[in-house]
Amino acid sequence: LAGIAVRESTGGIHACKKASFNPFGYGSCKIGFTSYQQAIEVVARNLNPETSRYYKGKDLEGILKTYNPPHIVREYSDQVISIMSSIKGEDIHEA
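and the corresponding structure tokens:
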């Protein structure tokens, strides 16, 4: 989620203007939340392959390509994975 928030809104600095408390660009910035805590809980729950039919059975790259498909942002999954690697301090593909 941190990687998505950094990619979508510079970590919340440029969060969705029309949807409150949405640093993830979730729902194409059409879905607002009552707090950042609620946003984190809802988005995390929906990205969990065990609880969401859209992401079920997919690896990290598959989840990211579902979240923001390549026909919308071609390098999105690679960008988020790179941000995650920077945060973690290693190559996430090897982890």
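(Above: one complete record from the training split.) Residues 76-88 form the longest helix (13 residues).
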